[in-house]
């Protein structure tokens, strides 16, 4: 089952289609998300994605994390707990961003913001370049 989840994992196998909000490149091309940065525990119904922002002061780190969370929530069975993290030592406000990305109430509030949701949808929309 774990292999099937990894093979079907949209973050890994469709990441070429996930664009960075500030760059015309995919998250894969920028090495923000790699296959090695995704952990799936089928027994515990848990998925963890650890991503690396492009720079230490990346202003879009929270947006990138929200994009990853939304894609996984839409793609995985609802029994899975999704944990999105910034790679340790790769962002100036790592602890704050991690807290925001994994707080259900903050995520729900962010997704109610239509402007923010539009940015997320744009990041998740397929590119044909």
Describe, in plain words, how this protein is organized in 3D.
The chain is of the alpha+beta class. It has a domain at 35-124: 2-Layer Sandwich (GMP Synthetase, Chain A, domain 3). Helix content is 42%, strand content 12%. It contains six helices and three strands, in the order H-H-E-E-H-E-H-H-H. The protein has a three-stranded mixed sheet with strand order 1-2-3. Helix 3 (61-75) runs parallel beside helix 4 (94-101) and helix 3 packs across helix 6 (114-124). The model is unreliable at 1-17 (pLDDT under 50).
The CATH architecture term of the domain at 35-124 is: 2-Layer Sandwich
Structural class: alpha+beta
CATH class label of the domain at 35-124:
Alpha Beta
Strand content: 5-15%
Q: What is the CA–CA distance across the termini?
A: 33 Å
Number of distinct beta strands:
3
- Along the chain, the helix and strand elements come as HHEEHEHHH
Q: Could you tell me the mean pLDDT?
A: 81
Q: Describe the sheet with the most strands.
A: 3 strands, mixed
Low-confidence blocks of residues: 1-17
Ordered list of secondary-structure elements with their pairings:
Layout: H1 2-8, H2 10-13, E1 38-41, E2 46-51, H3 61-75, E3 81-86, H4 94-101, H5 104-112, H6 114-124
Parallel strand pairs: 2-3
Antiparallel strand pairs: 1-2
GO biological process, one term: chromosome segregation
InterPro entries: FSCA_dom_sf, MIP18, MIP18-like
Pfam families: FeS_assembly_P
Give a quick rundown of the structure.
This is Protein AE7. With 129 residues, this protein is of the alpha+beta class. It is built from six helices and three strands, in the order H-H-E-E-H-E-H-H-H.
């Amino acid at each position: 089952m774990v292999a099937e989840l990894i093979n079907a994992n949209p973050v890994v196998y469709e990441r070429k289609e996930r664009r960075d909000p500030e760059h015309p490149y995919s998250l894969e091309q920028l090495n923000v998300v790699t296959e090695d940065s995704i952990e799936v525990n089928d027994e515990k119904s848990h998925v963890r994605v650890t991503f690396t922002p492009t720079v230490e002061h990346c202003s879009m780190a929270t947006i990138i994390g929200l994009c990853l969370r939304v894609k996984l929530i839409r793609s995985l069975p609802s029994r899975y707990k999704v944990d999105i993290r910034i790679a340790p030592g790769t962002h100036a406000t790592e602890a704050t961003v991690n807290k925001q990305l994994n707080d259900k109430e903050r995520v729900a509030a962010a997704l109610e913001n239509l402007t923010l949701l539009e940015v997320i949808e744009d990041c998740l929309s397929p590119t044909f370049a």
